[in-house]
Amino acid sequence: MENIILRASGEKGQVRVFVGVTTELVEEARRRHNTSPLATAALGRVLTAGALMGAMLKEGQEVSLQFIGDGPLGAIFVIADSKGNVRGYVRHPEVELDLNDKGKLDVAKGLGKGMLYVLKDLGLKEPYKGSVPFVSGEIGEDLTYYFTKSEQTPSAVGLGVLINPDLTVKAAGGFILQLLPHAEEEVIQKLENNLKKFSNGVTPLIDAGKGPEELLALLLEGIEYKITERRNVRFKCKCNRERLERVVINLGEDEARDILEKENKLELTCHFCNEKYVFGEEDVDKLFAENKD
């Protein structure tokens, strides 16, 4: 199944919506990082949020989400760009906890108390930076608070990840619904009523076979709207061997050779995608010979 994000505008610019299905995106992250069900749910929600927020960007821009808490998961880092590329990781992917009192994966307890940081590289001299404390650690509620508090945009954010018995991802997706200036009370009331259809979350609807278009229709039922963009999103990292070669050079020749002597290889792992890059003695000799200056 493709990972699709839709962008739509409703009632002559009174509301905008970003909605998508990200099942394969989240499954790719689970596979790469070998995450526990709890870590899959937490990372998957933030990856989905990143994909949705990436659809807000203009060409060449990038957004970074950082959920840094005092719970056992530690922190979640996700970066998304304007081309639909999303990457991310959770600091402690192996963590498992008991289900919460609703019988669901306890993402809030996994993250604990902490801060959400949003950084946007908009091509300006300095990146935009915004931050808010966690409201609940449930990701969606924290982002809802962020948009209202830091960007002064009343919003509703729904994010979800459903896990199969074999621990793979069964369904993942979400939405960001935002009121724009001069939204009429009648429109607001319709949206509030429509959001009640998502009271059990977004993933049961996705699991039942509903795609982005159908989710959008539920969110904007009774409201005239237009889809303004349809985009594919994917888990894709920027790392490559050349980038990691620069990391080896920055280690310094003495430290690089010390690691080689102890380990018989120099292995570096990208945090964001868990790809491993191995450098042998000949590789290190060549790198430092080429960079003597």
From TrEMBL:
Any GO BP: protein refolding
Gene3D superfamilies: Hsp33 domain (3.55.30.10), HSP33 redox switch-like (3.90.1280.10)
Post-translational modification: Under oxidizing conditions two disulfide bonds are formed involving the reactive cysteines. Under reducing conditions zinc is bound to the reactive cysteines and the protein is inactive.
GO cellular component entries: cytoplasm
Gene Ontology MF terms in the entry: protein folding chaperone; unfolded protein binding
Alphabetical keyword list: Chaperone, Cytoplasm, Disulfide bond, Redox-active center, Zinc
Principal cellular location given in the protein's record: cytoplasm
Signal peptide segment: none
Cellular location(s): Cytoplasm
Disulfide pattern: C237-C239, C270-C273
NCBIfam families: PRK00114.1
Sequence similarity: Belongs to the HSP33 family.
Described function: Redox regulated molecular chaperone. Protects both thermally unfolding and oxidatively damaged proteins from irreversible aggregation. Plays an important role in the bacterial defense system toward oxidative stress.
Protein name: 33 kDa chaperonin
Species, as recorded: Anoxybacter fermentans
